[in-house]
Amino acid sequence: MSAASPLAPGWLLPPADANGLASAVWPAAASRRDDGQLELGGVAARDIAARYGTPVLVLDEDEVRGRARATRAAFEDAAARHGTRARVYYAGKAFLSTEVARWVTQEGLRVDVCTRGELEVALAAGIPADELGFHGNNKSVSELERAVEVGIGSIVIDSVWELERLAAIVARRGAQQAVLLRVNSGVHAETHHFLATSHEDQKFGFALEDAPALVARVRETPGLDLVGLHCHIGSQIFGTEGFRASAARLLAVLAELPGGPLPVLNLGGGFGIAYTAADEPTPIAELAEGIVSVVASEAQNLGIPVPSLAFEPGRSVVGTAGVTLYEVGTTKDVSVETPSGAAVRRYVSVDGGMSDNPRPALYDAQFSARIADRTSDAPPALVRVVGKHCESGDIVVDAEYLPADVAPGDLLAVPATGAYCYALASNYNHVPRPPIVAVRDGESRVIVRGETIDDLLARDSGYAGPRGDR
């Protein structure tokens, strides 16, 4: 094994094999062919790149389906062991398309949306409206109108303003709408501070101590059927401690509510995945049992019925299924002074970047990378994979060891890009967003068409249309 670079973070060790695929980071079916090519869903990476171009986000359909199925089974089985029921909603904000919505619902999940756009995608996929939940901290009147119009399964009320807007809408329509109240348990998830969503100083939900008065108010509002409380403590969380602590606080409030406890407790999602070989996400069955068991024991201690439970995983269903393929355009060695002397960092520039994956820039997120169209016996070298945008913060993979002979023309694969990458993508520097290609059983197909320069120009009202010499 090569010596570690003094520029590498402490968790990143030189690999014994810089071609190897860490099993927790890649789709279960990802492998190397005899010729060294990465294979995804039975399709060679080079064939995908040749057919669809790069960058391209490849989504392993079986990985999504398998994780959706395993998640539903884990929570349903845990709930049954403890005398209650559980429903699992796929958090569409992680990544949503009509095809993905169909995959997860065919595997028994419902879908959680948080904007009119996400709602319409789910409806366009043929998902029954009563299998959808609607989130969001600033739902407009028109969004609430549309949700009630289509008969959405539930709406999570996030503010008094929303409560008043929704009360007026159901009164005018003569409708009956199931709702939950989003509350903040005060449990601080151990994650990036932008991903922690249940502490007191943030935009979502109500303070937990205000819940009793709000419950009484909603229960008195005609047309609103209050079914439960909702709490989401954050994202990319390992372990069960935060979820268990949050559930205990919520149950203590449920037990003291005027008019008796509510039948549903939605504990959100936020289950973490592996982005690097150093990450050790908690197995989903262990998460389910750990969370459900504490709900059951706390309810018994408080002398109240065990509530029905709901969960909203997104990243843990779709994240590991995604692999983004790029082509290397340039490499550049930079000498950096360290306390132990000069060290070299190799910059590897690819044909995408923060326009298709802004997570490193937003959250200091770490990712992995491998050469996808060949293997190499060259020793590992520390690299930083960067994009093509005019930003020094345009980093795709902050630190990774790749074979030292990585060169222009190589195909590079970045795993674990299925969640919050395309969903956060932009047209920064007028770069078109890439296509999304599903792979399964040796076949590939486009499920989201990539943008073109013509697509970008079509929205520019000063554009007069194609010229003859274009």
Question: Explain this structure to me?
Answer:
About 2% of the residues have low confidence. Helix 8 packs parallel to helix 9. The chain contains twelve helices and 21 strands. The chain has two domains: 169 residues, Lyase, Ornithine Decarboxylase, Chain A, domain 1 (Beta Barrel); 235 residues, Alanine racemase (TIM Barrel). Strands 4, 14, 15, 16, 17, 18, 19, 20 and 21 form a nine-stranded mixed β-sheet that branches. Strands 5-6-7-8-9-11-12-13 form an eight-stranded parallel beta barrel, surrounded by six helices. A three-stranded antiparallel β-sheet has the order 1-2-3. The chain is globular, with a radius of gyration of 24 Å. It is of the alpha/beta class.
Q: What would the keywords be for this entry?
A:
TIM Barrel, 21 strands, alpha/beta, 470 residues, Lyase, Ornithine Decarboxylase, Chain A, domain 1, 9-stranded mixed β-sheet, globular
CATH architecture of the largest domain: Alpha-Beta Barrel
How many helices? The count is 12
Query: How does the overall form come out from the CA principal axes?
Result: globular
CATH superfamily of the largest domain: Alanine racemase
Count of DSSP E strands? 21
Number of domains: 2
Summed up:
The chain is an alpha/beta fold and 470 residues long. The protein has twelve helices and 21 strands.
Which helices and strands, and how do they pair?
Layout lengths: L30 E2 L5 E3 L2 E2 H8 L3 E5 H21 L4 E6 L6 H9 L3 E4 L2 H9 L7 E3 L6 H10 L3 E4 L2 H14 L3 E8 L21 E2 L3 H9 L4 E7 L10 H15 L8 E3 L17 H19 L5 E4 L3 H4 L3 E17 L2 E10 L8 H5 L6 E2 L8 E7 L8 E9 L7 E5 L20 E5 L2 E6 L4 H6 L12
Parallel strand pairs: 4-20, 5-6, 5-13, 6-7, 7-8, 8-9, 9-10, 9-11, 11-12, 12-13, 15-17
Antiparallel strand pairs: 1-2, 2-3, 4-14, 14-15, 14-19, 16-19, 17-18, 20-21
Helix pairs in contact: 2-3, 2-9, 5-6, 8-9
